Amino acid sequence: MKSRLPVLFILITVVIDAMGIGLIMPVMPALIQEVEGAGLARAAVWGGILATIFAAMQFLCGPTLGSLSDRYGRRPVLIVSLVIMALDYVLMALAHTIWLLIIGRIIGGITAATQSTSAAYMADISKPAEKAANFGLIGAAFGVGFVLGPLIGGALAESGTRAPFWAAAALAAANAVFGYYILPETVTDRIRRPFQWRRANPLGAFANIGALPGLKRLMLITFVYTVAFFVYPGVWAYFGAERFGWGPGMIGLSLGLFGIGIAIVQGLLIRPILNRIGERRAVVLGLGIDVVAFVLLAFVTNGWVALALTPLTALGSIAGPALQGIMSRTAADDQQGELQGTVTSINAVATIVAPLIVTQTFWYFTAPGTVFYMPGAPFLLSAILTVCCILVFVQTPRRTKSRVA
Predict the structure, then answer these.
(1) What is the per-residue pLDDT for 33?
(2) Does domain 1-184 have CATH number 1.20.1250.20?
(3) Residue spans in the chain of domains classed CATH 1.20.1250.20
(4) Is residue 263 within 8 Å of 149, Cβ to Cβ?
(5) CB burial class (10 A; 0-12, 13-18, 19+) of residue 56?
(6) How far is C-alpha 122 from the geometric centre of its chain's CA atoms?
(7) pLDDT tens, the chain, 405 aa long
(8) How many Å apart are CA 119 and CA 126, to the nearest integer?
(9) What's residue 294's pLDDT?
(10) Where are the alpha helices (DSSP H) in 113-214?
(11) Which CATH superfamily is domain 211-396 in?
């Protein structure tokens, strides 16, 4: 049981990271209107700015925290980040100006970049053959947080716009205390690496990790796939309302079912799938399933049919952990934190770019006077991007042994 506690801590940390976004999402429009004294339209503009700041800080700080964990250890980076995260939520709970909220999102983006350190810790304690499956547990934990966050945040919002922030602060603080008592350090002198700023900044990390055989191509696939997959959170609410006439309740339920499906697939099904077909075939299978799901959603006209496709769309999520497992086994033992930090930055950049792509595509094909009306066009675009990922991946050479830098 004691040996499982660190894994439990890592999974709780990922759940809190995922919940932190969804937990405050239901109250952000009202909170911004409260501190700005403005209408909903202006609040939406500020909300977009805050989201961009958050993603940008994740991009900038992911490699830095990953490299710091390679030098000073995973334990201090994780625990200190959780403490700062708790204080950040307290700041946002007390904020009465938009500038304090901006500062809060800057700090929040930095602390949320600990996903790279969490993944590196999981890589440290996993045997090579277990890495992809254990990364699947991280994906499942994120799915659980994705489901619980909006549900709990919406319920707490009934007690006021500040209640979700106090709850998030309490969760982060409690997990920091838990980690302080049970989390052992995994970075030993054998894999400890000196901290260098040229490798800790995003561009430096990209250049260094990309020098390893196969990783440049795999990182490109990761970026394009993340952009394609972001069509769900990026445009689903608009698509559901336009195509099926869904209200907020039905949209929230559909996203919740999707999150549960991902948690089941990555938490329970991915290990037997990987044991049976291996990582490379799992990547191709997952991407292929995504292509089919995207094409079907692009043309579906019945909301119940769209809901029925949830298991299929969730099954496609096996591609991410399998791809991450291949990348982790390609990198050296003393580069796991740096690699995961770079992956976090790739995902952050994709999170900045993807909403613009999918929402502009949706707008173009649904705006009054459009030449061709097609609400599902963003899903068709995602299908095309995913096909490109498959074509690039099948040409990626196999690598069975990682080297130590």
Answers:
(1) 74
(2) yes
(3) 1-184, 211-396
(4) no
(5) middle
(6) 16
(7) 456 788 888 888 888 877 766 676 667 667 777 888 765 446 656 766 777 788 778 777 777 777 787 888 888 989 998 999 899 999 989 988 989 989 998 988 887 767 778 888 888 888 777 777 777 788 778 777 877 776 777 677 767 778 888 988 998 899 999 989 988 887 776 667 766 666 666 666 566 655 666 677 888 898 999 989 888 877 777 788 788 887 656 776 777 788 788 878 877 888 898 888 888 899 999 999 999 999 999 999 999 999 999 888 889 888 888 888 888 877 776 667 667 767 777 877 888 877 778 877 887 788 778 888 898 898 999 999 999 999 999 887 775 444 433
(8) 11
(9) 95
(10) 115-124, 131-156, 163-182, 197-200, 202-210
(11) MFS general substrate transporter like domains (1.20.1250.20)
Angle in degrees, 0-180, between the axes of helices 74-94 and 163-182, rounded to the nearest 10: 160
- Candidates 274, 271, 402; CA nearest to 329 is 402
Among residues 173, 146, 141, which one has the least CA distance to residue 7? 141
Structure tokens at 43: 């609040």
Kindly state the tokens that stand for 3: 């040996």
| 0.70 surpassed by pTM | no
Q: What distance in Å separates the CA atoms of residue 296 and residue 60, rounded to the nearest whole number? A: 36
Residue 345, number of CB atoms within 10 A of its CB: 27
Pair 135, 336: CB distance under 8 Å: no
CB 70 within 8 A of CB 195: yes
- Amino acid present at 43: A
| CA–CA dist 87, 83 (Å, integer) | 6
Tokens of 12: 């709780």
Question: Which distant-in-sequence residues (6+ apart) come within 8 Å of 94 by Cβ?
Answer: 100, 162
For residue 204, the 8-state DSSP code is: H
Buried b (16+ CB within 10 A) or exposed e, 194-206: eeeeebbbbebbb
**Amino acid in position 42:** R
Output the six-digit token pair for 161: 């716009």
CA dihedral (72, 74, 75, 80) positive or negative: positive
Nearest residue to 66 via CA among 18, 16, 112, 117: 117
- Looking at residue 293, its pLDDT comes to 94
For 174, the token pair is: 């409690």
DSSP designation for 397? P
